[in-house]
Write a structure and sequence with these properties.
With 321 residues, the chain is an alpha+beta fold. The protein has 2 domains: 2-128, 3-Layer(aba) Sandwich (Aminopeptidase), CATH 3.40.630; 158-315, Aminopeptidase. The protein contains 8 helices and 14 strands. It has helices spanning 11-22, 30-38, 98-112, 137-145, 185-195, 199-209, 272-286, 300-304; strands at residues 2-5, 49-52, 59-67, 81-89, 117-120, 132-133, 153-160, 176-179, 217-221, 227-234, 255-263, 291-297, 309-315, 317-320. The strands form 2 sheets. It has an 8-stranded mixed beta sheet with strand order 6-13-7-12-11-10-9-8, with helices on both faces. It has a 6-stranded mixed beta sheet with strand order 1-2-3-4-5-14. Helix 5 packs antiparallel against helix 6 (199-209). The longest helix is centred in the first third of the chain and has 15 residues, at 98-112. The two termini are 29 Å apart. 38% of the residues are buried.
Length: 321
């Protein structure tokens, strides 16, 4: 076995190996692999490795790690958390120590970056999973033996609509919903910076950088046209593959996604959060989308009122160093 630092020239083999393991539940496209691994400036190259069979030159496993390092963004964050984004080993090569070796190499590189804890999945940006898929308990048990812990669950929710099903739209007491436009760019970034600094601010900056036009953001504006809330909505025309449409190839029909969403805290308590989700659903339905996913949420009761039910679930796991 030979261990080499991960190279983009192996991306097709990475996607093939992933799909050998996950095609029935999490089928991946090379586009998504490229976007989330090599397209993320936070990829820790020294902590991203692949295992190669010396005889056949076949890829038998890989690990990808991340730590905050995107200085080009103009933003700064504490780098006290590192992430192991993915760890995949060919099922026919398991039991030979490949997974353990890849994990040790990733952890060693993250230690050198002085991180205080390592999270499994839930990367700061461009993650694959928010944790370990709950239908894979053997992986959870393996990680527990390696010093990781965590039992909190988060969920992906799904709702399927009939072709002519009507969507309720709520009154908003003078505030107005509309899709963002290119000229809303600075206002939307400023809103995120003021109300939701951190991950969401970083994501909206990346969205515009990667060619976003605003059609993926439903905004709520007051009488002065100031933004007081937002909800992201995604479909197959979106310039960025967002988490809630990652697994669209599991469906024969178009898949849409909703989230994240947030309301300025000064305007909470007016049902704006519920109303903006209703409006986002209506917009996606007008675009011809009948299946909608809300990803990575613990709020089953809230979204259950809108007909969403658990579809996939994940354990959040981490290791304190």
């Amino acid at each position: 076995m030979e261990y080499k630092q991960l190279g983009e020239d192996r991306i097709a083999a990475m996607a093939e190996l992933w799909n050998q393991e996950w095609s029935e539940s999490f089928p991946i496209r090379e586009q998504l692999m490229r976007q989330n691994v090599f397209g993320d400036r936070n990829l820790l190259k020294s902590g991203s490795w692949m295992a190669i069979d010396r005889v056949t030159n076949r890829l038998l496993g890989f690990v990808t790690s991340k730590v905050w390092q995107d200085r080009k963004s103009g933003m700064t964050f504490d780098a006290d958390t590192g992430w192991i984004q993915a760890l995949v080993v060919d099922r026919e090569a398991r039991g030979c120590g490949i997974g353990g070796e890849l994990l040790v190499r990733a952890e060693s590189a993250l230690r050198k970056e002085n991180v205080m804890q390592i999270a499994i999945g839930d990367d700061f940006h461009k993650r694959f999973f928010p944790g370990i898929p709950a239908d894979n308990p053997e992986t959870k048990q393996w990680l527990e033996r390696k010093g990781y812990s965590g039992s909190e669950l988060s969920y992906d929710l799904l709702n399927e609509y009939k072709e002519n099903e009507q969507i309720d739209r709520s009154e908003t007491d003078g505030a107005v919903f509309r899709l963002a436009r290119p000229d809303d760019r600075d206002d939307l970034v400023d809103f995120m910076k003021r109300c939701f600094p951190g991950r969401w601010e970083y994501q909206i900056r990346q969205y515009w950088e990667l060619g976003g036009t605003g059609r993926e953001f439903l905004i709520l504006v007051d009488g002065n046209n100031a933004i007081i809330g937002f909800c992201r909505l995604n479909d197959d025309q979106s310039p960025v593959l967002a988490q809630n449409i990652y697994w669209a190839s599991l469906f024969t029909e178009r898949l849409g996604g909703i989230g994240p969403l947030g309301i300025d805290e000064r305007f909470r308590g007016r049902r704006y959060g519920f109303s903006i989700v209703q409006e986002a659903i209506a917009v996606l339905r007008e675009r011809g989308v009948r299946k909608i996913v809300i990803d990575t949420t613990p709020y089953l009761d809230f979204y259950g009122k809108l007909g969403f039910r658990p579809w996939k679930s994940y354990w959040r796991m981490q290791r304190v160093l």
